[in-house]
Amino acid sequence: MKKYFCEIKIMLKRGILDVQGKTVENSLHSMEFQNITNLRIGKFVELNVEAESYEEAKAIVDSACSKLIANPIIEDYHISITE
Amino acid sequence: MKFGVVVFPGSNCDHDAFYATQTNAESQSEFLWHKDTSIPSDIDCVILPGGFSYGDYLRSGAIARFSPIMKDVINFAEKGKPVLGICNGFQILTEAGLLPGTLMRNTSLTFICKDVHLKTLNRNTIFTNKIPENTILRIPIAHGEGNYFVDDDTLKMLKDNNQIVFQYCDENGNVNAESNPNGSMLNIAGIINNKGNILGMMPHPERLSDIALGGNDGLLIFKSLIDSIL
Asked: Which of A19, A68, A71 is the closest to B105 by Cβ?
């Protein structure tokens, strides 16, 4: 078994209003940051996973994301794995 | 008729639900611990109460959905027995896939605790049959994540099958943007599954089931259940 390190980025799907992101963006606009746009807020998860191969590690994490870590109805996730 | 109120770590409306069913609705009630793996055979209706199960970590209801008792709650629901999810209970039901859609952060980004008015769109359910026609209910909400969202196809299915049970409205029954407290699609406050045995709602009927607390519109939901099951 090899040990892999995994980083997961979870973002609200495009088209779903990210009220938190919008609020932070509006606040920046009220400061001196008028040139900042499209601010969106997501989640970042790190974990270790033991698996025989990269493919197996990715499959395990993908399953964990779709079952619990992310909510596929409103969120997209991106997994990156290193050994 | 016996209600089973599931207690998760972080539930805080479990005692209210127990009191409303046992004392106000004059039925029987029992607490069910989240670590139990089966629902006692004499339970006729399971209530998933409000609160902040597992501290709302990750997403509201996401962790509670995997509590040991949930396997049997899903079993219970699949047998067609009644399950009522209130607030955090509604969130748990969507996370468990027992009801479609999800509850997102309120558009105001604030936690809202106030009385709201509800229009009952479907009185032909085991949860709503005691609600008189054209009655606007007054029931409190208390949530930070009650903004109901679902994809367009499922929303159409909910409408076509009469699965939207409650909508937020004003005291005269007008459903509009002003009476929508959290940004929910179509002012949705509560939905039922297609089979009609699982209801999820953000407002708290158990908090307004006793006249001494300022109203008892919520009692109609428990009375409906008792009447349907007996």
From this structure: A19
Beta pairing class for B164-169 and B147-149:
unpaired
Q: Do A71 and B109 touch (CB under 8 A)?
A: no
Would you say domain B2-229 falls under CATH 3.40.50.1260?
no
User: Over the stretch B128-151, which tens digit does the pLDDT of each residue have?
Assistant: 999 999 999 999 999 999 999 999
How far apart are the CA of B206 and the nearest CA of chain A, in angstroms? 29
Q: ipTM of this predicted complex?
A: 0.86
Q: Which residues pair with B28 in a beta bridge?
A: B2
Contact A68 B66 (CB under 8 A): yes
B109-132 tens-digit pLDDT: 999 999 999 999 999 999 999 999
CB B18 within 8 Å of CB B216 = no
Q: Are A57 and A46 in contact (CB under 8 A)?
A: no
User: Is A74 in contact with B150 (Cβ distance < 8 A)?
Assistant: no
CATH second-level architecture of A2-82?
2-Layer Sandwich (3.30)
Residue ranges covered by each domain of chain A = 2-82
